[in-house]
Amino acid sequence: MADLLSPAEAVKRSGFSIDTLRYYERIGLLDRIARSTGGRRQFSEDHLEWLGVLRCLRDTGMPIADMQRYAASAREGDRTLEERLALLTEHATRAQRTIDELMRQQQHLNEKIAWYQAQISIQQGDSA
Length: 128
Known about the structure:
The chain is mainly alpha-helical. It contains 5 helices and 2 strands; from the N terminus they run H-H-E-E-H-H-H.
């Protein structure tokens, strides 16, 4: 049997808090979590790999409901490949729109920064 990880080790390796791991299990994003004889969760390498997928989805702004749909679809196996592809494609499109908007906003910030730097330079030139 593969080595199982304690909750503390899963937290350390996944970067998620223990509360997040518990929440993800409760809402169905994590399943088949083994328990020790004392009832403590035990995580596998497969769980950590899946947590990497969840991290990507979460960090790119996928709503929890879509993450749940994706997880449920993944559990159904290859017959849902097209559904998962559609979910990820839609999400990638939304993520790209967000990136594009952030880049526009960053450009605006850079213009404001340049303006303030110019104003300060002018003031310092007047003071000299």
